[in-house]
Amino acid sequence: MGSVAGMLAQMRKLLGTGENPPGSNRNHITRWYGMTGPWCDMTVSYAAAHSDNLSAVCGKFAYTVAHAQAFQKRGRWHYGLGGIRPGDVVFFDWSGSRSIGAIDHVGVVEAVHSGGTITTIEGNTSDQCLRRRRNSSTIVGYGRPGYGDAKPMPPSDGILRKGSKGPAVKTLQQNLNKVLGTKLAVDGDFGTATDKAVRDFQKKYGLTVDGQYGPASAVVMKAALKGGTKPQPPAPRPPATGKLAVDGKFGPATCAAMQRALNRHGAKLAVDGSFGPLTKKALQSYLKVTADGVVGPNTVKALQKKLGSGVDGQWGSDTTRHLQQALNAGTF
After folding, report:
1. Do 191 and 303 fall within a single domain?
2. Residue 79 phi/psi, 5° resolution?
3. Domain assignment of residue 196, given as a range
4. 176 and 66 belong to one structural domain
5. CA quadruple 286, 291, 293, 297: dihedral positive or negative?
6. To 10 degrees, what angle do helices 297-307 and 317-329 make?
7. Co-location of 33 and 126 in the same domain
């Protein structure tokens, strides 16, 4: 059985791993896994397998929903960020629904900070393995691997329900009083009256009425306290504008600059620095090749011809340098 330190050491070794060509979902991690596709969870599996932690993370996974469910079945799952520690496997839902069934990304926690933020190492983020600073806005929850030196799980799974007690229940009662006009005793005891108020809140805001105050109810409560009726999806934070380093590395800054250039040609992309399906199709439309969202040799050759680089159908550092130069010059 491996350790937290071993898992983090392997994740750090993967920092900077990209795709060849960019947008292809092909690299040594996907080759090891034996499948070409989104590789965020393959990265977790790869690092675990190379640090004697594969059984600790519940096995080999590419599908994030199944991975979270595996942690849940083992009693090693917690909703939200409460009690999270380095080495935990943290799961994201970009839509903000906080539902396990909607999970679409995963990473490993490297550090926990005051103020409710964490540093993660994530594969397949902007087509690379990178460090990210995250807050609770898109986090569904986390799984705690059964490392040889794993800390005990928190005493609850992060959901408040009948019988729960403590400061979190007091906060819930205060918030219910604000948004529903109820007059609950703010005593930190989730009893019959609090259960009814939670159900009333869930019914009013179109949530599943089960009396359990979990991540989905919490995100709607946050919106309700601000006068809204539903959660707002988090807005992307694009890399800053400015002259690109001509270093041959296709990272978020280069991708964001390309997105801005494509938007000037009529695309309507969110500038987020992520080379996703819409960006790939917009690039293909601009290059006048089949817009299928798959960056293969035909797309790369068209790009290389546009840039005046060597035309071999392989998107390497030379192609990226030519792209960066064109973006800096405003000729793309």
Report:
1. no
2. -75, 145
3. 167-225
4. no
5. negative
6. 50
7. yes
Q: Region of 243 please: left (phi>0), alpha (psi -120 to 50) or beta.
A: beta
Type and span of the H or E element at 271:
none
CB 45 within 8 A of CB 54: yes
Helix, strand and coil percent figures for the chain, each rounded to 5: 40, 10, 50
> Nearest CA to 286 among 306, 257, 312, 301?
306
The answer as to whether 319 is a domain residue is yes
pTM over 0.90: no
139 lies in the same domain as 173: no
The dihedrals phi and psi of 114, each to the nearest 5 degrees, come to: -70, 155
Same domain, 139 and 171: no
What is d(CA 97, CA 109) in angstroms, rounded to the nearest whole number? Answer: 21
Two structure tokens written together for 27 = 């690299």
Number of Cβ within 10 Å of residue 167's Cβ equals 8
Q: Is there a contact between 80 and 86 (Cβ–Cβ < 8 Å)?
A: no
Q: List the CATH number of the domain containing 175.
A: 1.10.101.10
What CATH number is associated with residue 65? 3.90.1720
Query: Which tens digits make up the pLDDT trace of 154-184?
Result: 988 889 999 999 999 999 999 999 999 999 9
Give, in degrees to the nearest 5, the angle at Cα 120 between 116 and 123.
145
pLDDT tens-digit map of 271-306 = 888 888 899 999 999 999 999 988 889 999 999 999
Record the tokens describing residue 220, joined without a space: 């709607």
Q: What is the pLDDT of residues 126-165, one digit of tens each?
A: 889 999 999 887 899 999 999 999 999 998 888 999 999 9
